[in-house]
Amino acid sequence: MLICVDVGNTTIAFGFYQKEQNQDILLDTMHLETKVTRTIDEYGHLILENIRHLKQTYENQYDFNVRGVMISSVVPALDIILEEAFKKYVHVCPDFVHVDLPLGMHILIDQPKQLGADLLVGAYMAQKKYTSPLIVVDMGTATTFVAVNSSSDIIGVVIYPGVVESFQNLIASTSLLESTKLSVPKHVIGKNTEESIQSGMIYASSCVVDGMVEKIKKEMKEENIKTILTGGVSKYIAPFCKSCIYDEFLLIEGLKEIYYQIYK
């Protein structure tokens, strides 16, 4: 089994891959709230619990010995905790994504080492899967736009507040809005407070994505630029964006590809 882990500021996403007829099958995913206060043992037990669940689900169909772990992280405080959890509980030392990996992509920004590992993984997988030029929009804690030119070089990034985070203070500070959830409202023009906020979350956010993508395309000055949407919130926004490709598992899949290209 190969375990791929995307450590974000809000959520940690795990992908569990198994080999089947020379293909990697994504058997399951697991999402945990990002907590730097969670101990090595707590993370270890949660990982083992999910592996035991997979063993029960698939019985003797697969070998569940973990052969590798690939991690991208934007939370440095968790790196050593997860590393020790995997070493102690699955007996594998994980590999981490960093900008010096020979992925065949030039990072054409002022300080390449400042590029988040998640942005590198998303850009790498997008150009490999869809071919460049393209724009990768990752809608998580922040909404990021990564521009990749026709030579598959990362030429720059835009960072914008995340959809949920940008509304949190509004919702938290108004008791009438505490029940508001991220959901697609029936109307653009809201008929009540909750629906009005949801319209802002979904429809206004889709306009932000479309508007930024259009401006980035003009600056890139290339033809046939694709737009790839990923990240936890993107499944709500993608249906209302113009000419985009929604890829739920772009980063998890990218971690798998990097593992095989670089480490094994």
Summarize the structure in words:
With 264 residues, this protein is an alpha/beta fold. It has two domains: 2-96, Nucleotidyltransferase, domain 5 (2-Layer Sandwich), CATH 3.30.420.40; 112-253, Nucleotidyltransferase, domain 5 (2-Layer Sandwich). The protein has seven helices and ten strands. Strand 4, helix 2 and strand 5 (95-96) form a beta-alpha-beta unit.
Mean pLDDT reading: 93
Separation of the first and last Cα atoms: 13 Å
Strand content: 15-25%
CATH top level label of the largest domain: Alpha Beta
Ranges with pLDDT <50 over ≥5 residues?
Answer: none
Whole-number count of domains: 2
Please summarize the sheet with the most strands.
Answer: 5 strands, mixed
Order of helices and strands: EEEHEHEHEEEHHEHEH
- What is the strand tally? 10
The outline comes out as globular
Helix content: 25-40%
Briefly note the structural class of the backbone: alpha/beta
- CATH H-level superfamily title of the largest domain: ATPase, nucleotide binding domain
Radius of gyration: 19 Å
CATH architecture of the largest domain: 2-Layer Sandwich
What is the strand arrangement across the widest sheet?
3-2-1-4-5
Under CATH, the topology of the largest domain is which? Nucleotidyltransferase, domain 5
Q: What's the number of helices?
A: 7
Secondary structure elements and pairings:
Elements: E1 2-7, E2 11-20, E3 23-33, H1 40-58, E4 68-73, H2 76-89, E5 95-96, H3 117-130, E6 134-139, E7 142-148, E8 154-161, H4 163-172, H5 193-220, E9 226-230, H6 234-237, E10 245-246, H7 250-263
Parallel strand pairs: 1-4, 4-5, 6-9, 9-10
Antiparallel strand pairs: 1-2, 2-3, 6-7, 7-8
